[in-house]
Amino acid sequence: PFQLLEIIRKEDVVLRAILTTHHHWDHARGNEELARLCPGLRVYGADERIGALTHKVTHEQELRFGAIRVRCLFTPCHTSGHMCYFMWEDGSSDAPALFSGDTLFVGGCGKFFEGTAEQMYNNLTHVLGALPKETKVFCGHECTVRNLKFALKVEPENEMVKQKLAWAKQRDDEDLPTVPSTLQEEFLYNPFLRVTEEPLQKFTGKTDPVEVLRTLRTEKDNFKKPKERPHPQAVLAFDWGLFSPFLEKK
Fold first, then answer.
1. Is-catalytic flag, 231?
2. Is the residue at 94 inside a domain?
């Protein structure tokens, strides 16, 4: 929370509300402290388990913060109370934005902790997938390279996967973000949005889209990224015995 408050101070704005996608600690753990430091703070979400919750929202409910408009999109599966937020600004030429929490990632989707493949299929196809294609996707975690390595395993001939993976690796090397993407891009390389495509059906051995999605999620849960080669300097350090004092048995 203190990092966030420092950003708010630098931007010279006032924190009035928090939109929380779900109750997991890595998304909501700062709510209580922020509420303590900012009296009157409104905390929006769809799950009673969200810390410091003051306003419970429902599917397709719309909120307004000045010129910014927010549509709440209920996407249960990762958690039973997961809410995504679709935002746009009146009179702006900028593309709208989707804050997708742990439902939709760049190149992937969230684990089915409290829901089913049927729910996630509905989330990705009928709820989020129906948004304007130019929508920018801001997800809750940046695991783009790992997601795209799995996408490449699923579709080794998909040129868009190859290009996006090479781009993401370069961004990582330069310590630059890979978020956001756009919804239009996601449909080209994200396997969880491509469940009706022939290569996905061939990979999973299924034809029903929900079963394709269910199998993909199981495969992704068990996916191990290729082992990275040891860092050459670390290898030299071992060769020279620099770690020996730490490795000796007592």
1. no
2. yes
- Catalytic residue chosen out of the listed positions 23, 47, 82, 102: 102
**Residue from 23, 27, 47, 82 carrying the catalytic annotation:** 27
Active site residue 78: yes
Per-residue pLDDT reduced to its tens digit, 73-92? 999 999 999 999 999 999 99
Residue 107 domain-assigned (yes or no)? yes
Contacts (Cβ under 8 Å, ≥6 apart) of 169:
145
List 12, 26, 221, 239, catalytic entry = 26
Distance, in Å, from the CA atom of 217 to the CA atom of 190, rounded to the nearest integer, reads 12
Furthest-apart CA pair in the chain: how many Å? 70
Q: How far is residue 60's CA from residue 71's CA, in Å, rounded to a whole number?
A: 6
102 is catalytic: yes
* Confidence at residue 246, expressed as pLDDT on a 0 to 100 scale: 47
Tally of structural domains, the chain? 1
63: which 2 tokens? Answer: 């909120």
Range of the domain at 95: 11-225
- Report the DSSP pairing between strands 68-74 and 62-65: antiparallel
Which position among 22, 23, 47, 82 bears the catalytic label?
Answer: 22
Catalytic residue among 78, 94, 221, 231: 78
| pLDDT tens-digit map of 114-158 | 999 999 999 999 999 999 999 999 999 999 999 999 999 999 999
In a domain, 98, yes or no: yes
Tell me whether residue 25 is in a domain: yes
**Mean pLDDT computed over 165-177:** 98
